[in-house]
Amino acid sequence: EGGLNPYLFEMANLREHCSWVHSGEPERATKKAKDLVRISVAKARLLEPLQKKSVPVTERALVIGAGVAGMRGALDLAERGFEVCLVEELPTIGGKTARLNTLYPTGEYAIDTIAPLMKETATHPNIKLLTNSEIGNVDGYIGNFKVKILRKPRFVSERCNACGKCVAVCPVETSNEFDFHLTKRKAIFTPFKGAIPQAYVIDEKTCNKCGKCQEVCEKKAIDLNEKPEELEFDIGTIITAIGFDSYEPPEGEFGYKTQKNVITMLQLERILDEKGPTGGELLLGNAFGPFFRSSASKNIVFISCVGSRQEPGVYKPLREGQQLNRYCSRVCCTGALKNALLIKKKYPDANVYYLYRDIRTYGRGHEKFYRDASDAMIRLMKYSSQAPPIVTSNSEELTVTVDDVLTGNETFAIKADLIVLATAMVPSAKLADVQGKLKIAKSADGFLQEAHAKLRPLDTATEGIFIAGAAQGPKDVTDAVAMGSAAAAKASIPLAQGKVDLEPIK
User: Over 312-323, what HEC string results?
Assistant: First the structure.
């Protein structure tokens, strides 16, 4: 403040290092204080002034991941007049939100809610959208990153009008990841109706290059010899919004993959979707087992905290080397109650059970879902972490046995026609790769680590790199969108200033 060079400053911290920690030994603390002053003076005599160096900033941002957080962040930056390079690993944008049925608390259909956001992102003149792509080498520093991006071939050009003739003749079928492996798709496909980009894409891993799709394509939009392309961009700031993965229960956990009609919550989202594999009916197709007819009164059991709040010594991992997820995933309770209410409304005669450890309906007003579930006669039963529900099968009949804490640990055996596992949100499978390339930290839970939970919740320890959405930890759609906007605001500051001061190292 007095005009001196700040790098000629040296502090002898007598409060924290002497008076506070040695209050019971004042004489020895005074001796130590004198030593600290002498040491600081000796160092100060050798200090030399340093000067900060200002460098220009490339007015272009990189956003990694085109889910709701990434799209919102990219659009906010683009609307401020900055160029944005938006990179998405999948062949379409929208992330996992595009695969949900309805959103709480409004009840709106997810795809209808985000469709305008997807369209605006894809058509904004300041956004260069690169789907089916991934980041490569990242060099440089804030304001002057150099990023290589590998754009993998789609094998189908923008001339494609999505007529579907290629799909009809394709002989290869594989599991459909968009429906969370409940259905099948062809090697040439579009992830869902209304996907952006609209053009079809060929799955290189499953395509046998038979050429039948090329023969029937009237637009000549298919090139089976297309090669990957490496692009390089100068980037000022980076936002990583790579999202999350859903916990995949090990085989046998609550009967998953060993018993019929045991599914995850995200699979239920696709089943309840009117545009999903069963047209919104609780009917199972041939691809994934014999679902029951919904007209009769049946028993549906939800089990919470599957993959969340796994305590050492209590939870026994079924998978070798499995990391325990000790955190709460925040969205599971509200999501399960939302779906339980949807089922009860559509099928009033169904018996719906919700088995939970604790109910935590995060978010303003979301406690209403718990009250509505009670009013709708959804049977709420609480289990302890030491005695989780047990799923067994006998003569094609599922039974869920639970000790209900609410009735003094009385044991109930529930005949279940469908079991829904409310699975956790876990770090994305690509997180380690992105973390290594960006040289940023991750938390003990495995998500990307912010610089400070309260003071710098969007920053990373690397200047100029920010995080948004579920890449940082479990988030619902509302939180992810808000965090995308917030990260864009932070990332735009160096871009708007046009220059940054580099910290002098020597």
Answer: CCCCCCCCCCCC
